[in-house]
Design brief:
367 residues; alpha/beta; Rossmann fold; 2 domains; 5-stranded mixed β-sheet
């Protein structure tokens, strides 16, 4: 009898062990977030989850993920992305969603700061940034979280398209990335067809001033090789002052030498421009554009880094001013709504800019 009892006990233990070691039906049905490898802009092979649901964006990434429809997956955001200014369009439309998120860094004026402990507290699946390779490696080492870093190439370039593709692949929105890229390319092609055959002698000389780089500037802060002027084939008086598209300071003698027919100012700089005018109106009235009332305001194309949606809208606005006949079939409000709807999911964003007096308009200095 004792032998039989011992035998039953041994069999019970064996079946118990087998039962514990065998996967249950329920557990076998649970989905597993398998890893995969992605190559970022710097050739880094990064192991990331199969499905990305939680994102911490640093640097230029908050803007890019907004374009790709990923803003609701953000779980931590740099402090500089909190704004009340509609000129920072991607952040402005997300201000309610992002306002209570943990502060994970600061990129204001190129600070390039990140806070590892705060990032870890957000438990992101992935960090997306445009920081350089060494910095991306450092962040990944400090946090143990995959970091996908993309470059910050010139606006409207194929490299910019590839940046969108990498983020799209990493976050499972490749189709959305291709939709954005297709729209950008078709818009550029449309603008090219309208402007590429216009003779130079029929074009006014133009200048982009009141430029925004490391803060706002008056008329002596200008853009060279301004992307909007480039795609419009405009006669940019500052085109040859730099080999790259950039903002820089010039002296007033150079402005007088250029003496452009039309001057365009960043909206955020108009207060400085008007203050400057009140202190030295004589200088300003030597300029042809001032004397003939050819001064215009546009929303900033740049805030930390370049926007895409605002420069596209600006291209149609400026194109209609420079070459009225070439753009006479464009309904500006309709085109604007189309662009803002795609990039920001906010077709009436032009009205927001206008309400805050940072939209498109002709300006009179001192008013």
């Amino acid at each position: 009898m004792k032998r039989i009892l011992v035998l039953f006990m041994i069999l019970a233990i064996i079946f118990s062990i087998i039962g514990c070691s065998s996967p249950s039906i329920n557990s076998s049905k649970q989905p597993k977030n398998q890893g995969r490898t992605i190559i970022d802009s710097y050739g880094r092979e990064v192991e990331i989850p199969e499905v990305v649901e939680r994102i911490v964006p640093l640097g230029n990434a908050p803007r890019l993920i907004t374009y790709l429809g990923l803003s609701e997956k953000v779980v931590g955001i740099p402090q500089c992305e909190h704004t009340d200014s509609p000129l920072m369009a991607y952040a402005y439309i997300n201000r309610d969603n992002w306002k209570d998120l943990p502060n994970v860094g600061n990129d204001s004026l190129g600070a390039g700061e990140w806070y590892p402990e705060e990032i870890l507290s957000c438990q992101p699946d992935i960090i997306i940034t445009n920081y350089e390779k060494e910095v991306a490696n450092n962040i990944q080492s400090q946090t143990g979280i995959p970091v996908v870093s993309v470059s910050t190439p010139p606006l409207f370039s194929e490299e910019y398209n590839n940046t969108l593709r990498i983020i799209g692949e990493a976050c499972g929105v490749s189709e959305r990335a291709e939709t954005i890229i297709k729209f950008i390319n078709s818009s550029l092609e449309d603008i090219k067809k309208r402007t590429s055959q216009i003779a130079n002698e029929n074009k006014p000389n133009v200048l982009a001033a009141g430029a925004t780089f490391k803060g706002s500037h008056s008329i002596d802060g200008i853009y060279a090789k301004y992307p909007v002027f480039e795609i419009l084939h405009a006669k940019d008086v500052a085109k040859d002052i730099s080999d790259i598209s950039t903002g820089l300071m010039v002296d007033r003698e150079q402005l007088l030498a250029w003496d452009p027919d039309m001057i365009f100012f960043d909206a955020s700089s108009m207060e400085l421009v008007n203050m400057d005018y009140s202190e030295d109106p004589t200088f300003f009235h030597q300029l042809k554009a001032v004397k003939e009332g050819q001064l215009y305001q546009w929303p900033n194309s740049t805030w930390h880094w370049s926007n895409v949606e605002i420069p596209l809208v600006t291209a149609y606005y400026v194109g209609a001013l420079l070459y009225p006949e070439a753009f006479d079939d464009i309904e500006f409000e309709k085109k604007t709504a189309e662009i803002f709807e795609l990039f920001l999911n906010k077709s009436d964003y032009l009205s927001i800019l206008e309400k805050e007096d940072v939209g498109y308009k002709k300006v009179i200095l001192g008013e």
